[in-house]
Structures are given as C-alpha cells and as structure tokens.
Structures
1.
Amino acid sequence: MKKSVPIVALLASLFAPHPLSAAGDSAAAGAMVRLYGSPVVMEKVFEPARDGLRDSLGVGLFLAGIGEANGLESLINGECEAAMLSSPLEDAVAEMTRYGRREIPTDLRRHPVASERVWVIVNPSNPVRSISLRDLEGIYRGRITNWRELGGPDLRIVPVQPPSGTAARKTLIRDLLAGNPDAIRGIETQGAKDTANYVRFLDGAIGAMPIPDLPPNYMKFRIVETGEIRYGLYLVTRGAPSPELGRVLDFLNADAERTSRN
C-alpha cells in the first residue's frame, strides 16, 4: 500500500513537471478546506461546486485526488479535514488493514454527498433494449453466453468488466455477484476509454460503467434499460466536521434537494 502523502510533499508537487491531481482556490477565500482522496469524488462533486462554495460561503477548497487509501491516511494523520471516498467506508478501512495499517481510529464518520449510477452499455448494432439484473448477473458469471438467450441475434456475448479497483467494479461484484470478486467473467479494462472502445468495436460486447465525460468518438455505444445499480460518494471526517466543512455539507445537501425537485 502506498504511504500517505505528507502535506509538505503534496504542496511541493504542485510545482513539479508532473504534479499529483490537486487544485486549490486563491488565498482570497475566507476559509480553506482540504479534501484528499478519490479522484472520482473530486471530479464529480467538488470541482463543479468550487465556485458556488467560494461565492456563497466564502469557503475555498484544496482538492487532491491521491486515492482513497492515501486520503484516509492523510485524514488520520491530520493533514486534511476530510477524505473523499467512492467506496463504502468499511471497504476502504479493510483495504488499509490488509496492506499493513494496524490501528484504525474509532471516530471516523461518513457523510454522503452524492451517488453515481452504473449504466449498462452495448454496441449500437445490438437490438436488445433491456436486460434484467438477473440476466446481467448471468452474463457476468459466464452462465449466459449468447445474445439469442436474451431475444437478440445468434451472437456470442463478450462481457467487459469495469476497471479493477473502481467503485463501479466493486458495486457490480457486491450487487450482482454476492460480493465474490472471483466470480466475475469477461475482458479486463484499464479505464473508461478502454471500456468504451471494447463496446463500440465488438458487436457482442456489453459493459457497465458510469457515463464519463469522453470525446464524442468514444460515446458510440447504446445504453440499455436495466435495474438501477448505484454507489455512494462520501466524505469521511474524524469526529464531527469542522464548522467550515459543515457549511460545505449543508450547501451540497441543499443543492441536491433543489436538483431532486426540478
């Protein structure tokens, strides 16, 4: 397991030729909140909210997408106000202990900030419009191997796995495969572009992933209807959040309520 990135090294990295994924507001903000961890949470939740938080609350954000384990290590070491997670806290803690950390604080608190849906995608030439979660399970277990079994053409199904270590893969394994990572079948991928490429170029391919911001040439696939597969995005604090972070959480909750009403 990688060691936590000390705050001095993290700040210094901003001036290196190839810095870590990190960004901060100017010192003009009334308060600065440091959030380290999942790049997914950083990109999906906090980068879009940065201007609103600064303008409405006078709170600036320093964000570092250094990975969930490093984010938790930094939180435990007092180097940030919160860790960003796209996995359940218990999963992230289990990973830390598996790679050597012996003492986990008992005051870690999880704060949901958003959720992300995993969409099922197929090649545009595929006529199948919907797939049940039960059939999707059969596909990823290798029990359903031909589209003819689902009302489609006589064509071999090529399951494409979400990338290793991603929240989408963990959620697929948890929700469809009873938590057994050894049960999943299909082509392993390295990222969203890799997944999209397999699906758009292989007639029989099927993939599962959040829909990212990709160039138009990568978006040549079709979403099929299926039961909802979703995972949460979280902040984790030591005890109660600081007053500034509490205002950030209130702002995000209010924004989520407005979005759900519209």
2.
Amino acid sequence: MTVTSYYNNKKMPNLSLFSCCVLPGAFHSSVVGMFRKSFFTFETDPLKADLVVFTGGSDVHPQLYGEKPIAGCYTNERRDEYEKDIYEKCLAASIPMFGICRGLQFLHVMNGGKLYQDVTGHAGGNHSIIDLDNNEIVNQVSSIHHQMCRWDASIGMRLVAVSSVARSKHYQTYNSSLTPAANKTVEFDNGATVLHIPGSVLEVEAAVYPATLCFGVQGHPEICDGDVYQAWTMELIKDFLIGEVIDVAKTIPNKIKA
C-alpha cells in the first residue's frame, strides 16, 4: 500500500491540564516556547511534572550501549550521568518521559536500544515522514542529526513514524557499516496495513516504549514554528498523555480527558 493522505493540521492542542519539566539542551528556549503554545505549566523539579522532556544536543556515549565511540562521535559524559539519574527517578515514579532528537536517542538507549553512531543524509534540510498509526505523510520535518536509533522490537519499542524514504547512504556502528542496496524496499506491517518503504532500513522518526512510559521524536519540531510537524508532535504528546497511545491512566488519573 502507498500512503497518499497528508497531515495538514497546524493547530496546537490545548494541554493546560498538564505540567512539564524541560531539561537543559539544544534549542531549550524554543522547546519551552513550543510547550507554552499548548498551555503547559512548567516545573523545575522533574518529579513534580506530568511530563519530563529530554532535549537535543551532544551524542549519547556509546559505552551506555556497549560500544566504543567512532571518530566524529561527540559526547558529554556529565550530561549522560545527569540525565540517567533523572531517567531512573522518573522511571521509579512512573513519570512519562519525552525525547527530542538526542532525547529520543537517550531514552532509546536507556530502554536497552543501540544507535547508529553515524548516518548520512540527515544533517541539514527537511524531509517527510510516515505516521504509521494513521497512515499519513507529515511534511517539512526538520533533520539535523548524524546519529539514529536502531529499530529493535525485542526491547519493547513500538514504531510511531519512519522516514518515508531511507535517506542514508551508510549506517555506521563501532564495528560495521551497512550500505543499503539499490532498488530495495523494506516492509512494515502494523497489523492493519502493509507498507513498502524505499530503502533497506526503517529510519526511526518517532517511537514509544510502553513499559517505561517513554516516547519521542527524532526531528526538532521546536524550530519548525507554525509548521505541521510541530502540531503533529504536540498531538502525539496529547494522545500519549490522555492514554490513546498507551494506557497511562494509572499515572495521571485525575488529568485524563477524552
């Protein structure tokens, strides 16, 4: 099946019932501004928030997923330790966590996943993604990263969106480099629809980890002011918090609204 419908909503959802704690990182003020547009209130203490937001920035150190860094991997171990401590506290308190770019990669690693330490074709420019839940194309998605989550269903990871075309010419790990074969397609079966996506790798653009109440996006919606990608991301956050992505009623029962 080919996806032909497009997500074209630009209206930000009203999430004034919820609070968030936005952690330091890339485009911090823009992330705060994006959440403010959906009327979140803000907490400085992660353990008092309904949602903790892990932002973009330096590479997650490969030692956290059992690899050595390759040349061009720029890490910040102090940040890794700081965010790991917050992750563990939020996990123990059943507080939902949302990641943007590095934030998604960090949460992926915390859930047992691994990263491609370097990929091509994503450090600059916009592209389209496929919303796998709704079989819609979302355009003008920001792309400024060189690392990427490696799809792994065995860790309880659920794909929400993938790049509509595999953009990278290589996917580098510590000890291997995957070069996609020409004229190949990769299949995704979500139970209702089977999609065939050009390329050899499902390039992760959004994912959910239900067991730990983690989810995130690979792009930077906070710098897509007024764009559909920003509205799409905030709708994903809304759907997660009201329990339409997974059942989080046990986490924030007094705030669940249809």
3.
Amino acid sequence: MDQRHHHRGTAPGQTRPHSDLRRRSVHPVLALQRLIGNRGTTRVLARKNGTGTFANSVRIGKLGPIEIKESNIADWIGKKNPETLTVTTAKGKKSSDELKRMSEGKTRVEAIEVTSVSGENTFIKVTFRNAHIKDYAADASGETEQWIVADFDAVNIERISIGKARP
C-alpha cells in the first residue's frame, strides 16, 4: 500500500520526517471544558485546587478540606465585609480536635481558604491571611461544629469562571 505522507525531498516509499516541534495547544482548562462541559469542569477545578468534592469547603493550613454546612461567606463574596467569618462544618475526628485546639490556643493560622461553587460555572476562593479561630463549639447532635474566623490581616477573593459567568 502507498504511503500517504510524501515529501519531495525523499525517495519513493519513504515518509516525511515528523517535526519535533509541537504545536502550542489550547489552554488545558478550555480543552477540559470542551471535553466534559462547564459543570463538569467546575467540579474538576474544585478538586484540583484542593477543595475536595464539596460544593462549599474550607481548608485551614494543611487541614482539610472540610465540608461547610452553613456560613456567611456569601456576605464576603457580595462585598458586605462583615467583621468575622462564621462557619458551621461537618464534624470529623481529626479536624474537630485540631479546630478545638486552635480555638483554645489562640494561635494564628497562615491561610484559611474557603471555596465555593457558584452557579454552573464559577468557582470562588476566599483566603483569610494570618487569622485566629475563635469560639469553637460542637452541637449536641455531634454532627456539626461552629467556629469563627477573626482578627485576620487580609482577605483575597478570587473568581474563576469557565466561559461566561452565570448565576
């Protein structure tokens, strides 16, 4: 059978040498979006950035991700700038013990990252720098715990959208 790739400088039956130079491809996030769609890409990005598979989660230093059941993060995203971040998270053996220790010890945490999937294709990460965890309390059912992030030095809000942002 004849070879399909011929080059004028080669003898009959020889194929054209392939170039070692690779074409620059599209951005990996766009390629992923084309492959699995907006919603799927948002979920993958949430996992890639260390947020686990929760739609709303928190990472405290190297601890986490911890599922957020309730919080006032919408006030922060909506630029209402409250004084503190109040969080209710799912109780977990390791995370609960560490949160309680941090609250009682009044030690500063370098970074507390709250992540949230907003709409179908927007991923929001709010980072509190050099913060204290205060007022840790587990509920009576033993399923959740509430605590407060306060006395932080800075807050950074980062939005990542795939395509046009949708509510």
4.
Amino acid sequence: MRVLLAEKDTSFRKNLAGMLTQAGYTIVGEAGDGATALKMLRTMQPEVFITAANLPVRSGLELANIIEDGRLCAVVVMVDYAEKDFDFTRQPGQSWTYPVLVKPFDQLHMLSVVEYAYSVFNKMVSLESEVRRLKDDLEARKTIEKAKGILMNANGLSEEEAFRRIRQQSMKKRTSMKTIAEAIITAFEI
C-alpha cells in the first residue's frame, strides 16, 4: 500500500515511516507542511494519506476534507493527546469522516487504524459507484418506458412488441436501448 505522510515533527515522521515500512507499506512521500503535502498528494497518488491535524500552512484537517471530498485516497488524522477532545467530525449532512489516531500510539494500533481507513474508503467508493450505476439504470428504464409508450400510442403496438422493436434497433445499431429510446422520444417531440 502506498502511503503519504504529513507531519511537522521530522523525527516523529521518520519514526512513523519506519513503522509503516517495517509492516510492508511503501512510503511515497513525506511532508512537513500542508501545502507541500497537497502538491505531493496530487503527483504521488497514494492509497493512504496520514496527516497531523496541526500542520503549518494548511492544516491536516483542511487537507483531509479536500482529499475526502475528491475521494482521492483514504485519510488518517493524527492528533496530540492534548487535542484529543477537539471535534474532528463534519457537520450533519456532510460527507463521511476519517479515523483519528491520538499520539502517542503503538505500531499495532496505528496499523489497525490505517487498514480500517483503507477498507472503509474502498467500501465507500464502491458503494458510491454502485449508487451511480443504479441511478443510471433507473434513468434508462424510465426513458425506455417512455419510448415504449410513444410506440404503443403512435403505432398501436402491444407493450411487448414496442419493447421488442426497441431491443431490435438497439442490436441492429449496436447501441444501448436507452440511446434508441432517446431517439424515439426526440423524433416524437419534433
């Protein structure tokens, strides 16, 4: 798994990189501030971004929100123990949130949070893709139903015959049934 680290404390960042490398992760970049991390993120395209909440220039929380909004990769935010009570969640109705690691943490805890963030990110991306596909399918069905209705009314066809004609034209033209249905609707409207 490709990981980008953003932490202003160089020694802590190197220690974190060592723990991740030892566990088999690939560190694609390290940044000490938010602006550098954002540039690296866009060029390195990691699978996981681990950031401190209190980065200079651009905060880790700001970066986490940008990354999650764009669904660029999984995000884990690290906070110091003194910051642990800070509200890291988004407002109701906004996107999903990211896991938070409270420093100090051990390698096992950190790895379990990273794996969790990665699996949740992939699950969310998969679910969003499925929702888009289902919406497209529903829209196609609505369009085909409307075109069937036009053919039935205009030509006195049964529902089965209207559907069969749309399907035949789709196969003949080697295009989707939705495209044929849209053409029928457009022709009828003219």
